[in-house]
Amino acid sequence: MEVKYLLLCIWGLQTISTSLAYIEGLYCGLENCYDVLDVDRDATKGDISKAYRRLARKWHPDMHKSSKAKEKATLQFQKIANAYEILTDEEQRKDYDHMLDNPDEFYSVYYRYYRRRYAPKVDVRIVIAVTLTVISVVQYLGQMSNYNAAIRYLIQQPKYRMRAMEIAKTEGLLQTDKKKQRGKSKEEIKEEEEAVLKKVLTEKMDIRGGYSKPDPYSVLWVQLILSPYNILMYILWWGKWIWRFTIKKEEYGEEEKLYLIKSYLKKYSGLTNVQWESLEDHQREDFLNRELWILEKFQEWKKIQDEEAKAKLAESARYKSYRRFMKNHGVGQMTFGPE
Questions:
Q1: What is the pTM of this model?
Q2: What separation in angstroms does the CA of 328 have from each of 140, 152, 310?
């Protein structure tokens, strides 16, 4: 009697343990995926495919005529298709078998299921590559758009247009012989002239800053590819700088002086690389003449510049109006409106 009671308890515990392995809404729900396809847990992928085709022919909705039978067949066909999808996917089958063997790991089962279900199907590396490519293309097209806008602006300005016209005539790029222009309409002649002027400006004009000619080496993809090389070159450059100017105490050359001035402007004035590139040569010459690579002289010059800017701002009528507004009605002021 005691042996029978013990066996009954063991059977009951096994039944409870097995039932806990089936969770509503996960995998095949409260049914066993292997039982749905009528296969063993040791079944191969080929065995599962054979069982699926056999059951699919039996339970396909088109094989049943009455609406009630068709409805029942549709539900059963969906179960079969779901079980087939789970058991033919190696990763899902592995997670499902883990759930059957470890029914007590309730939260772990949920995590594994939804992680697999909602994880991106596309390789993350492909997503990153496509994203970088899109950013690089947009970046390059933006540079090209700015550059073309600058060229169009220069063509419309009389000063640059006349200069480009002179260069085109000197180099024989413009057709001035009226005999050769016969048979062409005014629009065609004008289009040819505009194309020549644009070509001259593109080749001769030194446009700097945010409207400079697009540089393929500045786009994100190329920068990432060249980053190991750039890092190595920076380390070598920095080591050379320390050796020459810290250890050997050499005097700065023009390039080094401009580098120091640029770094001071970036640190104390917020100057960007684009703004630095857009500076005229005479401005850089002025920086060198003032010896602004020396920090004390730069700070003194910066103080004078700030004082001059404040004086100009104080004389501005718009700034005075703004100050009056902030004093009378600005933040923190309370006034009563007209009754």
A1: 0.51
A2: 48, 46, 22
